[in-house]
């Protein structure tokens, strides 16, 4: 598990280490500088000409120490001090004094520098101390850096990216490598920040574990070690041991969603998968996925199909409803029936969410009233249900503009989780899974996964894990994580352009080993 922190939390860890434990700030700075140099040495040569660009805060202090260590090791290195002398921290002052006693070129004005003379840039302008949009003077420097052709190593944060939410504060350095200290920052995982980091390396610079653990963060990601949380397979088992999933999906001319969800549930390990879909999908589903049990209904005669639907719902350990069911009157009737008969956990996806949003729109009191809509939603769905909207679906549910949600992703997650008994997997380039005070930010996956059907696959994976007994919040987080890992594996076998939803299903076997 990777704890994700914001700048304030990281500063608290810094000051706990320095003030409570007594580690001198300069020791941490030296460790930080050494870690950056160690990373650089994997790629640079003595032929490279390096420019270290420093601000006046401690990020700049790191930069000055990096320049000194590189010089001691025999590299060709110059310094550009872009900060203000008056706002230099004590540590940065000390580093500057050392640098001035060495035989180094120190530039002070951008117009004097020919960036083309350098093959490598080190960005030590601003780190986690970024407070607002970059000043014009720094903006000009960042523009020059981004036009430079060589590699850029960012110290702790690419200058201009907010460590708190990954937003670009006016303009930001597009780094090739970012070496960050202690913990991942939230802004390095969320977009666009994640893109600006390039390859992200998290370095231990000697913060004691007690300092690292001194703050609680509600934000975290999973890494490969978390795969241990996957349900264990019992040797003494039969198909009943691994649960029964009911996938209620598809409508006339829409069979793909049911197929993808059901197949993903199987590949995730569900023992039994039943598909409940319209009669018109019978032959195609039977051909596509003979392993599944098929139950069909006639949407025009739902009243006569009630008992059949009730039986399927009540037999299942886990029910998925929504993919491709459409937003017709009949689909709404089906949704009502299922919600009436079902026992949690339930996964509500796609059109199931759209149907409820449309229904809310018929009540004037629920128009433009996100809070009441979310409360109503939490009160009417079975507790611990998992809701898997992409941002457009969530915008419909909340009666908000999609851009507003996207620009305030962390606030959006808070609004969904507040006082809610539900679990939301908010699907975006970085999916956030929320429940009560926990925010899981997913760090696996790639742009190739932004293609039709990948949401249906995720739904099936969640259902597969639920059916095997993972509790709902864990199942949602783990499913989002392995869905992304499978997407990454599939992209590595093909490429991000060619990836399609079924490739993710086929890659599940590889990543769940
Ligand atoms: N012991 C420690 O603490 C350790 C800290 N470490 C390192 O220190 C970093 C944190 O240092 P920090 O707190 O000094 O902040 P930092 O990132 O240098 O930024 C402040 C500077 O940026 C400037 N600035 C801000 N906003 C701006 C804007 N919009 N536009 C333009 N300028 C702006 C601001 O200018 P001012 O407002 O003062 O004029 C000030 O000069 C951390 O990321 C890590 O690298 C490591 O060495 C480990 C030990
Ligand atoms: K930086």
Could you walk me through the main structural features you see in this protein, from its secondary elements to its overall organization?
- This protein has 513 residues and is of the alpha/beta class.
- It folds into 2 domains: 218 residues, Rossmann fold (3-Layer(aba) Sandwich); 270 residues, Ribokinase (UDP-N-acetylmuramoyl-L-alanine:D-glutamate ligase), CATH 3.40.1190.20.
- Helix content is 43%, strand content 16%.
- It has a 12-stranded mixed sheet with strand order 8-1-10-19-18-17-16-15-14-11-12-13, sandwiched between helices. It has a 7-stranded parallel sheet with strand order 4-3-2-5-6-7-9, with helices on one face.
- Helix 2 crosses helix 3 and helix 18 runs parallel beside helix 20.
- The longest helix is centred in the last third of the chain and has 22 residues.
- It is elongated and about 90 Å long.
- The two termini are 19 Å apart.
- The mean pLDDT is 96.
- Potassium ion binds next to strand 5 and strand 6.
- It catalyses: (6R)-NADHX = (6S)-NADHX; (6S)-NADHX + ADP = AMP + phosphate + NADH + H(+); (6R)-NADPHX = (6S)-NADPHX; (6S)-NADPHX + ADP = AMP + phosphate + NADPH + H(+).
- This is Bifunctional NAD(P)H-hydrate repair enzyme.
- Its cofactor is K(+); Mg(2+).
- GO terms for molecular function: ADP-dependent NAD(P)H-hydrate dehydratase activity; ATP binding; metal ion binding; NAD(P)HX epimerase activity.
């Amino acid at each position: 598990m990777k704890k994700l922190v914001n700048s304030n939390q990281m500063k608290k860890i810094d000051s706990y280490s320095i003030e409570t434990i007594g580690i001198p700030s300069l020791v941490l700075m030296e460790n930080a500088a050494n870690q950056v140099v160690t990373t650089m040495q994997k790629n640079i040569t003595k032929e490279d000409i390096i420019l270290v660009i420093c601000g006046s805060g401690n990020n700049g202090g790191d930069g000055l120490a990096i320049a000194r260590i590189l010089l001691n090791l025999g590299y060709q290195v110059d310094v550009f001090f872009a900060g203000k002398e008056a706002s230099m921290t004590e540590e940065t002052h000390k580093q500057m004094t050392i640098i001035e006693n060495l035989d180094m070129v120190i530039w002070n004005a951008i117009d004097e520098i020919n960036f083309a003379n350098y093959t490598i840039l080190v960005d030590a302008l601003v780190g986690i101390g970024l407070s607002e949009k970059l000043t014009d003077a720094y903006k000009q420097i960042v523009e020059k850096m981004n036009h430079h052709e060589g590699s850029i190593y960012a110290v702790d944060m690419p200058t201009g990216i907010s460590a708190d939410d990954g937003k670009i504060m006016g303009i930001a350095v597009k780094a090739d490598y970012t070496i960050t200290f202690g913990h991942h920052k939230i802004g390095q995982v969320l977009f666009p920040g994640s893109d600006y980091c390039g390859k992200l390396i998290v370095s231990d610079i000697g913060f004691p574990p007690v300092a690292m653990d001194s703050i609680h963060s509600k934000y975290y990601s999973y890494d490969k070690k978390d795969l241990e949380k996957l349900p264990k397979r019992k040797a003494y088992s039969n198909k009943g041991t691994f649960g029964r999933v009911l996938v209620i999906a598809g409508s006339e001319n829409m069979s793909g969603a049911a197929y993808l969800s059901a197949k993903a549930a199987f590949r995730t390990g569900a023992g039994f998968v039943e598909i409940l879909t319209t009669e018109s999908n019978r032959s195609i589903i039977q051909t596509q996925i003979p392993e599944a049990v098929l139950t069909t209904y006639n949407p025009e005669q739902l009243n006569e199909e009630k008992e059949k639907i009730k039986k399927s719902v009540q037999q299942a350990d886990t029910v998925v409803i929504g993919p491709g069911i459409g937003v017709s009157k009949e689909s709404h009737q089906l949704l009502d029936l299922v919600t009436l008969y079902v026992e949690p956990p339930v996964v509500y996806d796609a059109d199931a969410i759209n149907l409820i949003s449309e229904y809310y729109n018929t009540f004037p009191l629920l128009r433009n009233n996100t809070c009441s809509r979310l409360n109503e939603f939490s009160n009417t769905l079975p507790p611990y249900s998992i809701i898997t909207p992409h941002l457009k679906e969530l915008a419909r549910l909340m009666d908000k503009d999609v851009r507003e949600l996207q620009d305030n992703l962390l606030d959006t997650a808070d609004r969904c989780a507040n006082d809610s008994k539900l679990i939301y997997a908010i699907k975006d380039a970085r999916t956030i899974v929320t429940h009560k005070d926990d925010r899981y930010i997913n760090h696996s996956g790639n742009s190739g996964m932004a293609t039709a059907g990948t949401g249906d696959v995720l739904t099936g994976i969640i259902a597969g894990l639920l059916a095997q007994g993972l509790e709902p919040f864990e199942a949602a987080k783990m499913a989002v994580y392995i869905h992304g890992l499978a997407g990454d594996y599939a992209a590595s076998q093909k490429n991000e352009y060619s990836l399609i939803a079924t490739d993710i299903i086929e890659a599940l076997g590889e990543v769940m080993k």
